[in-house]
Write a structure and sequence with these properties.
Layout (H helix, E strand, L loop, with lengths): L1 H10 L17 H11 L39 H34 L45 H5 L26 E13 L2 E4 L4 E3 L7 E7 L4 E2 L5 E13 L9 E11 L5 E7 L9 E11 L4 E12 L2
Parallel strand pairs: 3-10
Antiparallel strand pairs: 1-2, 1-4, 4-8, 5-6, 6-7, 6-9, 9-10
Length: 322
């Protein structure tokens, strides 16, 4: 009775718009929550639960064959069977290649083989009687030796072979002069001899304005000399070699006695591929001792060692006191 009365009391609290006449109506949410709390075990009493996935694995498509294996041939074959099949196919291929190579080799050998050479036996010549008669050849008249262009004939004696080879060109009067011709009338000549401060090349120098120098300035002065027409030594290869010697002396001009203040000799050599016309030489004045004030003379002497010709010039200079 008490239970039924309690149920009725609870049912009277349901709002009138809800249908409570249906037998399948569930209990109110409050009663369900109370029952769930009463019968729900604590978390400490529950055993650990494994999480099991509820999703089903994807099934392979029955129509698509397994990847990596043929659909019909490799069905039911293991890895060893497939390996044996591959090894067998490789061996068969190698055997076929060897057989094919041998066939090609024998075909090429038979096609390009040289034809057999027939043996040819030469007949043995019959012995010929040798005559003992000796026929002397007639002497041939020797033609005079003509030297080649630019090369003189061989010397007739040992002395001529040891001498240096030189060439001189001569022209008849009124004849045309060839290129590079040097007249015998042209001899060595000093065209200019001056004292200068600086020399940079042929006809490029700074001359002194006056021939008056102080003793301490004398070593800074250069002697510039221009000369013409030295005779060259022409070699066989066409080169022209000029060889000269330059002597410089500085002596007192009033008496000319006593030891020279400057005395020096230098060798000049010039090699050219053809004849040259103008030459120059420059040299510093290096006194052997301090110069005393007075008048001096600088003597320049050039000697052509090829033609043995000498040319000379003099330059007056005055040394002033400090």
């Amino acid at each position: 009775m008490r239970a039924s009365e309690g149920v009725r009391a609870l049912s009277s609290d349901i709002p009138p718009e809800e249908d409570v006449s249906a037998p399948e109506q569930s209990a109110p949410p409050k009663i369900l929550d109370m029952l769930a709390e009463a019968f729900e075990p604590s978390s400490s009493e529950l055993p650990p639960v494994l999480s099991i996935p509820t999703t089903r694995p994807e099934e392979p498509d029955a129509e698509e064959p397994y990847k990596g294996l043929p659909a019909e041939e490799d069905a039911g074959m293991g890895p060893s069977s497939r390996l044996e099949k591959r090894v067998r196919s490789v061996c068969i291929g190698m055997v076929l290649l060897v057989v094919l190579g041998l066939i090609v080799f024998f075909i090429a050998r038979g096609r390009y083989s040289a034809p057999p050479v027939a043996e040819v036996v030469a007949p043995v010549p019959e012995p010929v009687a040798i005559s003992e008669t000796i026929v002397e050849a007639e002497p041939v008249a020797e033609s005079p030796m003509k030297p080649r262009f630019g090369i003189p004939p061989p010397p007739a004696s040992l002395e001529a072979a040891t001498e240096p080879r030189t060439a001189s060109v001569r022209a008849e009067p009124g004849a045309a002069q060839p290129e590079g011709w040097i007249s015998e009338a042209r001899k060595l000549r000093i065209a200019k001899a001056v004292l200068s401060r600086n020399v940079t090349g042929f006809a490029r120098y700074e001359p002194l304005t006056e021939a008056r120098l102080r003793a301490r300035h004398l070593p800074l002065v250069q002697l510039y000399v221009e000369f013409e027409a030295p005779q060259p030594e022409v070699r066989e290869d066409g080169r022209h070699v000029y060889r000269l010697a330059q002597d410089i002396r500085m002596v007192r001009g009033d008496s000319g006695r006593g030891a020279p203040l400057i005395e020096n000799t230098v060798s000049l050599t010039e090699v050219a591929m053809g004849p040259k016309r103008d030459f120059f030489a420059s040299q510093y004045l290096r006194p052997a001792r301090p110069a005393e004030p007075g008048d001096y003379v600088i003597e320049v002497r050039l000697t052509d060692q090829v033609a043995n010709i000498t040319a000379a010039a003099k330059i007056p200079v005055t040394i002033v006191a400090e």
